[in-house]
Design brief:
The complex is a heterodimer of chains A (197) and B (199). Chain A has 197 residues and is mainly α. Helix content of chain A is 68%, strand content 2%. In chain A, helix 3 packs across helix 4. The two termini of chain A are 29 Å apart. The longest helix of chain A is centred in the C-terminal third of the chain and has 31 residues. Chain B is an all-alpha fold and 199 residues long. Chain B has one domain. The longest helix of chain B is centred in the N-terminal third of the chain and has 30 residues. The chains are: A mainly alpha (197), B mainly alpha (199).
Chain lengths: 197, 199
């Protein structure tokens, strides 16, 4: 039960994007379509889980004043694995995610979890934490992507929804991303305020 | 001819493909350091400096080390280490040479390592195919500096607006991040106006 908590906290209570306010760049830039969002979530979760495990396993060996470069090297290693795998097996996805695959390295969520959690906890709990944060990040991405793909391209997962309807292109480009996130955050503030009474 | 190309790169990275507002790179510092105008200017200058010089170093390493040894798959890890090392180095030099500058700029420098606009511009320099041009290095540096100026422009505009938002009457649930995102969205719409521009 105690272990389950490590997974679920990332989804709502300490959701990286909504509550902690980090990892905005990939969230906004990649949520243009549901398939992009799913692949990005998968790639980031993979990197999060494995970098958390390795950082945690090495936590007693790493001298504290050079820990950041070491963490970044560990993270970058897994990012390269993801990059090469996607390039080999999913070239279309690799092309449409483009620069945001190498940029997983500088996703603040991953370095933040390594620093805040994995460097202080055991391997198993760090793995669960990585999984939870990855899920939270993935669900956030998916939420934005569903709204943006339906409104901005009149499609979901590549299928046209209403034939002949002109989509609101603005939702698929940068301003739409900012507006969608702003509205979701407003909704969350409202819900949280109501819960408190 | 060559000067013309450089000018086109500069204008398009500052306005047309503004890294923050149209490519959505570097949003963390854009939202984090835009509360006060003074700190926005400090951060902006530090980013211009780091982006320009990281473009220079990563380009040289890519062209003269990674390509000849056929290890371009290590691009990501090599670039992030160069940037992290360079930022650390700049921090130490500034601390020794000019303590005054260090106190006004120093706190922003460690943050720059994880600014995705910096890694972004170095990767984009490679993807733009500058390596094949004999003016490549200059083009990469211009793109780096232009990206930094574009980032600074967005940051300063945002800081100016946010200072006024402090005293504005905003709906209760929109205070804080939501209204900031709305403002960013409106700014991004304004910058869309540049996207049809032909140079």
């Amino acid at each position: 039960m105690k272990y389950l908590k490590e997974v679920t906290k990332g989804i709502w209570e300490r959701n990286p994007v909504f509550i902690l306010g980090i990892g905005n760049c990939p969230t906004l830039a990649v949520s243009t379509s549901v398939s992009n969002a799913l692949w990005m979530a998968l790639a980031s979760t993979f990197v999060l889980v494995f970098s958390n495990m390795f950082v945690s396993a090495l936590r007693k060996l790493v001298p504290s004043h050079i820990r950041i470069p070491i963490f970044i090297t560990i993270i970058a290693t897994f990012v390269i694995i993801v990059e090469l795998t996607l390039k080999a097996f999913q070239p279309d996805i690799y092309r449409s995610l483009g620069i945001f695959i190498p940029l997983i390295v500088v996703n603040c969520i991953i370095l933040g979890r390594a620093e805040d959690f994995a460097s202080k906890n055991d391997v198993f709990r760090s793995m669960l934490d990585g999984l939870g944060m990855g899920l939270g990040f993935g669900l956030t991405l998916l939420m934005l992507a569903i709204v943006r793909e339906i409104l901005g391209a009149n499609r979901l997962l590549g299928y046209t929804l209403i034939p002949g309807m002109e989509p609101a292109t603005i939702m698929i480009i940068a301003p739409g991303a900012f507006f969608t996130l702003a509205i979701i955050l407003t909704g969350m503030n409202y819900l949280n305020a109501r819960k408190k009474g | 001819m060559e000067i013309n190309t450089l000018f086109v790169i500069l204008i398009s990275t500052i306005f047309i493909n503004n890294y923050v507002l149209s490519q959505m790179l570097g949003l963390c510092p854009f939202l984090g350091v835009s509360k006060k105008l003074d700190s926005a200017i400090g951060m902006g200058l530090a980013v211009i400096f780091v982006m320009g010089l990281s473009s220079f170093f990563t380009f040289i390493i890519y062209k003269y080390v990674l390509v000849p040894f056929d290890i371009t798959y290590l691009t990501t890890i090599a670039f992030i280490l160069i940037i992290a090392g360079f930022v650390q180095f700049v921090e130490m030099v500034i601390e020794k040479v000019s303590p005054v500058l260090y106190y006004s700029l120093g706190i922003f420098l460690p943050l720059i390592t994880t600014n995705c606009a910096v890694l972004g511009v170095t990767v984009l320099n490679i993807e733009s195919g500058f390596v094949n041009s004999n003016m490549g290095l200059l083009m990469a540096v211009v793109q780096g500096v232009g990206g930094g100026i574009g980032f600074t422009l967005a940051l300063i505009l945002m800081a100016g607006i946010r200072e006024r938002l402090e005293v504005a009457d905003i709906p209760e649930h929109m205070k804080g991040l939501p209204i900031t995102f709305i403002v960013a969205g409106l700014m991004a719409m304004a910058f869309l106006g540049f996207s049809g521009m032909k140079i």
